[in-house]
Every structure is written in C-alpha cells, then in structure tokens.
Amino acid sequence: MIHARGLARRFRVKGETVEAVRDLDLDVEKGELVAFLGPNGAGKSTSLRMLTTLLPPSAGSATVAGCDVLTDPAGTRRRIGYIGQGNGAGENFRVHDELVTQGRCYGLPRAESHRRAGELLAALNLETLAKRPAGTLSGGQRRRLDVALGLVHRPELLFLDEPSTGLDPHSRANLWEHILRLREESGMTIFLTTHYLDEADSMAERVMIIDHGRVIADDSPENLKADLAGDRITVTTGDGADAERAGRIARLVPTAHEVTAEGDTVSLRVRRGTAVLPEFLRSLEAAGVKALTAEVGRPTLDDVFLALTGRSLRESAHTPEGA
Ligand SMILES: Nc1ncnc2c1ncn2[C@@H]1O[C@H](COP(=O)(O)OP(=O)(O)OP(=O)(O)O)[C@@H](O)[C@H]1O
User: Fold this and answer.
1) pLDDT in the model for residue 89
2) What is the DSSP string of 93-138?
3) For residues 58 and 229, is the Cβ–Cβ distance under 8 A?
4) In this structure, what DSSP letter does residue 90 have?
5) N or C: lower Cβ tally within 10 Å for the chain?
6) E strand or H helix that includes residue 9
7) Do residues 57 and 6 touch, judged by C-beta distance below 8 A?
8) What is the pLDDT of residues 208-251, one digit of tens each?
9) Distance (Å, rounded) from C-alpha 252 to C-alpha 233?
C-alpha cells in the first residue's frame, strides 16, 4: 500500500540546511495500522506530507495506494485520505454542508454527496451537530468532523497527522473508538503520526520510531519492548551490602543490562522478566542475600526510545541538527 525508497527532504532555513527526513525506506501492507512515533521535529509530518503529495521530496521515490506520488499525484490523492494537524472545515460553514461540498470536490454527484454526508454524520456520531457551523464544535467534535471529511471518498488508505493532539482523554478515546470501528468495517490501511506513547502502544500493530529524520526502529510494540528495552526486575534487600552483592549476581544474569544497586534496592533489565525472576531469586538465596520484595515492571515505548537514543521521548524536545 505504501512503498518508499530513499525518501528525503531538506529545507534551507536562514542559509542552513535542515535534513528533515533522510533516506526513508517504508513498506506498509494493505490493512496495516502503523504509527510513526518520534519527538518534535523528528520528521513525522514532513514524511507524511511527502507521501500525501503535499510536499515534493528532495530525493527518493514513493508509491502510495498503487500510484507514484511524483508522476501521478492526482491518482494518489483520489485513493487516500489525509487528515492534517489543522482543522479541515471552514469556521462558518455548517457541518453537513462541508461534508457535501467535500463530496462534490471529489466528483460525487449531488444526491450521492448528500447520502454520503448522512452516512458519515451517523458513523462519527455527528448527526445532532449537522446544522451547526464547524467553528462552534468542541475540539473532539471538530476532530471527528475532520475524520469524516477525510473519508468522504472512501479512501483505501488514511493518513492521520497527530489525530488526537490537544484532546482530553475522553475525546481521545471516543475518537479512537470511531477510527477503529471504521477501519474494521472498511479494511482501510491507516498510517498515523503521534506523540502519545500509550496511543501508539495500544492502537498500532506496528510502530516506526523516527528521530532526526531517520527511522531507528520498526516492529510491533511488543517486539520493540521485548527486544530493545526488556522488563525491569526490582528487588529490595535488607541493606546496602546485600544490594551490592545482589548487583554483582545480577550482572551475571544472561541478557541483563542497566544493572543498578542503590540503597537497599537492586534493579536490572532483562528479556522475559517473569521467567528470569525465580532463577535470580534462587541465586540470591544461594549467595545468602535475603530478598524482601520483588517485582517485574513491563517496559513502555519510552523505555525503547531511551534505549535507542539515550533520551526520553516524554521530555525530548527538538534538538538542532547534529546535536
Ligand atoms: N517548511 C519548512 N521549512 C523549514 N523547515 C521545516 C519546514 N517543515 C519542517 N521543517 C523542519 O523539518 C524538521 C522536521 O519537521 P516535522 O514537522 O516533519 O517534524 P515532526 O516530527 O512532525 O514534529 P512535530 O511532532 O512537532 O509535528 C524540523 O526541524 C522542522 O523545523
């Protein structure tokens, strides 16, 4: 559904070159739900804008929904939906009318445009708001209208640029409920960007992590967490001396990394923590170290980002090129 090779985009800003996206190779199959995750300025929106024909690449090629984005931008646009970061509807236009106009723009006959508008109002729970000007909707309602506008022409592939940014948790959950249901009904492929780690983790079957314009990881959230971060085992002992000894034993555990012994607590990361913990506790006991509490913490995608870059995605703001 999406095949990109060596896609790159440079910008000249005040005499300096910003490498917004570098050498992006991408293959997304029909029906996949892929999340592009990365800090501010990583290159997510720029990648999406190139794949949706809104921005010409500086280098590379891409086929999207069977069309070459460079030689057949019109064909690409007909087959995809794109919901950008800004609101798609005009402030003063009524919700229903905006949907009908969008249908007409895509070449739907008048009657079909009205029928499709009605269908989408129902599907996105906007029926009671049909006569309201778009500018009077709440953030969550507005975002649902954006999604409806992006779906008017029944695209096989939907691009969503930070669909839930700025929404409260309830509106986010509600929006996702609608997106996932529509996807189930239509088998649509979805490619989205997000800052929200929990969103990427729970919604996407595949997560691509991008940093400084480069994809640095691409796998299911489960595999990324297991392979790159691992579970954190934390054991409290009777005192600092025991924790030190436990730390030395922890370093011998296969796959152990990030081993720390602080105060009376020892902590380590391992693959499959629940399988490793009993054996680790037996080793401690054999060495005369008494474990008082033990727990296995599951990793997050932030732990994955930290393992890959040494930075936390939560705090990671855009850093200048080469930093
Ligand atoms: N039109 C432009 N002119 C100059 N620089 C740009 C332009 N668009 C993007 N950039 C730069 O390219 C880099 C990537 O930006 P992009 O918007 O793709 O990042 P992003 O990962 O989507 O960030 P965010 O999460 O903040 O939306 C940034 O350094 C940004 O400042």
Assistant:
1) 66
2) SBHHHHHHHHHHHTT--HHHHHHHHHHHHHHTT-GGGTTSBGGGS-
3) no
4) -
5) C
6) strand 2-13
7) no
8) 999 988 899 999 999 998 888 889 999 999 899 999 999 999 99
9) 14
Q: Which residues line ligand 1 (CB under 6 A)?
A: 11, 13, 18, 20, 38, 40-46, 195, 318
What is the amino acid identity at position 268?
Answer: L
How far does residue 42's CA lie from ligand 1's centre (Å)? Answer: 7
Q: How many residues does the chain have?
A: 323
Amino acid at 289: V
Dihedral sign from CA coordinates of 153, 146, 53, 220: negative
Tell how far the Cα of 21 is from the centroid of ligand 1, in angstroms: 9
The ipTM, to two decimals, is 0.96
Kindly report, residue by residue over 237-286, the tens digit of the pLDDT. 989 999 999 999 999 998 898 899 999 999 999 988 999 999 999 999 99
**Tokens 């989408």 found at:** 120
pLDDT tens digits for range 61-88: 999 999 999 999 999 998 998 988 876 6
